[in-house]
UniProtKB/TrEMBL annotation, chain A:
This is Mitochondrial 54S ribosomal protein YmL9. Keywords: Ribonucleoprotein, Ribosomal protein. The lineage of its organism: Eukaryota, Fungi, Dikarya, Ascomycota, Pezizomycotina.
TrEMBL record, chain B:
This is Uncharacterized protein.
Amino acid sequence: MPPKAPLNWGLIPPSFLLPSSAQSLFPLIPLTQPYPQPSYIPIRTIKSTNKPRPDRFAYDSKRSPLQSSTSAALARKAHSTPLRTGALALKRGMTALYDPETGKRTPCTVLQLDRNQVIMHKTREKNGYYAVQIGAGQKKADNVTRPMLGHFATARVSPKRWVVEFKVRGEEGLKVRVGEAITASWFRAGQFVDVKGISRGMGFAGGMKRHGFSGQPASHGQSLMHRGMGSAGGSQGSGSRVLPGKRMAGNMGNESVTVQNLKVLQVDDANGIVVVSGCVPGPKYQILRIQDARKKPWPEGPMSIAEMASMASQTATTTVTAEA
Amino acid sequence: MATKLTCRRAFAPVILKRTFAWAQPRNGVENPNESRAKTAPGRPWNGDQLYLRLQKIAKQPFPRTNPHSFQSSYITKKRHTRNLIVYKAPESPLKRCTDPISTVHASQISLLDPTGARTRLFSKTNPECARVGDILLVRMRTGDPFSGVCINIRRRGVDTAILLRGQLTRVGVEMWYKIYSPLVEGIEVVQRVAKRARRARLTYMRKEKHDRGDVSNVVRMYLRQKAALGIGGAKGGKRVGGLGPVGGKKSGKGKKK
C-alpha cells in the first residue's frame, strides 16, 4: 500500500471552500495547497536498494570484478561442469582385481546400474541451466503421485524410484534423447569418475569417534571422565565463549560424500556392472551418482546412445587394471 | 469422499476388509454363516473359509443403501492412474545378474587361474582340498618360498587368502598370501593334518602350548621325497597350485605321522 498523506487537521481549507465573507480576512491563502510528499521513495522489495559497496579486501586491480549475472556464474563454472550426463548406480560390494603382469592388487567396488533412463532435458533458455534428468530403479505406480506419473508418461518411461539431475555444460550434453536408456558402457574402462552418495549414518557420536579426539587417560587419578571432549575453549581473556565451528559431539555420517577421481577398471554392459577403484560412500545397495571426474581431462566417452552402442560393439567387455 | 464418488459412478469396489454385517445375499444363497455350514459341515469355524467367501461376495456392485459409517469399510480401487499411461518397466540388470560380485570374481579367476588348480585346492567341494592345520608351502615369483601351518583360510572369491604360521630365524612369523595373486607362483600341500581341525581359525596355535613351531624339517623331507620321485620337475618351482596327485600322496604321509 502506498503511503498516505496525513490529514491536514491544522490547515485551513482551500480558499474556494471558505465563505466569501472570510476571503477578505485571509487574502494570502493560496488557492491550491500542495499535499505533503513522503520523505522517501517507496520501492516494494525485500532486497536492499543500496548499491553494493566494493569489497576493499577482495579487490584485485589486475582482475576484472566478478559479474553477478547467471550467465557469468555459469561461465565461471564451465570448466568444472562435465560435458555429458552421469548415471545412477547401486553399490553392490567390494573386492579386488589383480594386474596379471605386475601382480598389483587393486581394491575395487562393484557398482550396478539399474535401468537408467533420460526423463527430461533442462535448458538454459527454459530452466536457466543445462542438465539431464535421469531416473533409475522401479516403483509401483500405486506409490507414485499423479503429477509424477504424468511426468514419467511424458518421457515414455516407467515410474522410477530415483530421479536426479546431472548438470552438463551445454547443448552437446543433451544428445541423449528423452526416454533413452543409459547403460554401463556409457562409462569406459580407464576413465575417471566422481562418485557421490550418502555415507553410512553413525548416529549421535562423541568427539572421539566423530573427530578423533584423544579423550582422557584411563588412570592417573582420572575420575568418571574418559571419553569426553575436554575443554571447549578459553575463559575470560579468550572471550568467554565457544568459537563458531568448534568440533563437538553430534550426528556422524548420513551426509553427502563425494569421492573424486576413481578409475573405472571394468565395464560389463550386459549385467550393468561398473567396477571402480577404491571405496565409495554408503552401505551396500546405496544409490550413487557417477559422473565424469571434474579434476581429470574429460573422457572421449560417448556423447549419445548411438555412439555408445558403436563404441561398445568394438570392445565387448573391457578391463583395465589400475597402474600406480 | 472418494467412496462417495465411486458410489455415484457405480464402479465395482473391491472389499479388502472383513465386513460381513452388511453382506447381501447373492442369488439368494449366501449368508456367511450359512455358507460356512454348507462348505464345511461339522467342522470348526475357519477364518480362511470366511475370507474366501467374502472375496466372492466382493464382486457385487456397491450397495448404495448402506449407512455412511459402513462406507469406510471399502477400499476402492486407486483411480489416480486414470487417463495416464503407466509404461512397463524394462527388465532389470539386477534380476539378470543378482550377484555381480560373483560375476566379477568368475571373470577374474578365469583370467588368473586358467587351469583351475588354485580354485580346486581351496574349494570346499574338493575332498582333497587344503584345510586349516595343513602345512603349506608357498612359492613366490620373487623372494624365498615360505612354509607354515595354515591357520586361517579367508574365502572371498578372487580375494581369497590364507594365513600361514611358521618360523623365520626361530621367530614365529605369520604371513597372509592371496592365493590368486600373480605373484604367488604355486602353493603345495606339504603335510596334511592328521585329524580334522574342529575350529575354522586355529588362532590358538599362537599360544606357546599349541604352537607348531618350526616346520622346515617336514618341508625338507617333503622336498627330498619329491625330488626322488621326480614329481613336479627337479626344483618343483614351476608348479602352479598344489595338485591332486601330490596332495593324495601327502595324505598318506600325514597318516604315517
